[in-house]
Amino acid sequence: MKNLFKLIIVLVVIAPFYAGATTLKLKDIFDEKGMDYIIANHEPISKKIDNEDKLDLANILINSYRGPDALPLLSDLAKKGDIRANALLIIKYSQGVNGVSIDEQKAKFWVEKLVGIYKKANEDDKQFIEYKFCDIYGGKESVLKNESKEREYCSKVFDRPKSTGFYASKLLEPNSAFFNPNKGIELFEKCIQDGGWACKVNYAYIGLSSPEIAKRTTAKQLFEYASDDKSVPNAINNLGLFYERGIGTQVDLKRATEQFNKAINYGSGFGMYNLIFYSFFYPGQFEFTAKTSDDAERFLMIYDYWTEQNGRFDALPYKEWMSEKNRMPASQSEFLDYLKAKSKNGDARSSCLLGDYYRNINQIDTALVFANEGMKSKDKRIKKWCGHLEQSVQVIKIYSN
Description:
By secondary structure, the protein is mainly α. Helix content is 72%, strand content 0%. The radius of gyration is 24 Å and the shape is globular.
């Protein structure tokens, strides 16, 4: 009874203070109520937390497949001068990701806002904005892609300290205004020698489709670089690609799918795309793949959520199958025959997808035949897809000799 009386006194003292508080901490709410409560009550909660927690709340919503619900929070913060929220709004509207549709007008509005801040910003904020504009204007699926502005802002980034790895990555992007593979490899090697972790995993991933890297770096070394993923979503996914293709290690499709699933749990859309691949090409064979039509539809929705609006073309063959059949393939041969018929009728996406499959099972000549078919497409995105496939086949050929 005495302890109960003390508890009542404590509650009486604390309750008025808590009720009248104008600012709550998101962590305290999480500890007391849990994540589901925060997501379900994000609107009233957003009125009781500070700006830093509002940004965290916006990211929670984005990572919980509630991207559109994050927009009011991000807009409110951006209007108050928060450069991180401003940059996120530009990315959402210019790329069409996280459930947000492309809106070029809104993207340009927030660009103007961020440019205004940039002119008066301190050095740290200027550096952040330069990085973001470099990526935004260089984004291959962005409606704001602009080679001139990409050069302008990326050049400023490259002049700053600790930008070696970022610069090297740009030099090895075939679609970048800075494409220069030999110089890029030299910079990567220097960065890795200096202990740059990000340089190692990025170099390994680029090496999967870079004959230039394959000629200078052993498959074993690339695999060792890729293995140091440090629980970063895309690095986890990329390690799965090494197991898938047997570069620097034995082919292990079970381990590959485990990596892809792990990457999804950390928020990787690439991981989801790869699990979709295994769901259709190896129906029912692996633990984490889609087993039913509902599973497949859910996987495709998740992929769309994390992928740029103009970058979802590579999933169209799967969507067309589901639209026509409303079920999973009964066997691998059934899905292969379906894609081959579409490829024969001129569907370049199906050609590229078949090329990916035959590359992965080391039927190199067949993979190149389908890659060449896909390269006939007038769609630049599909040509790049099959071009990337062709480069990755060349890497496998180099490492096979």
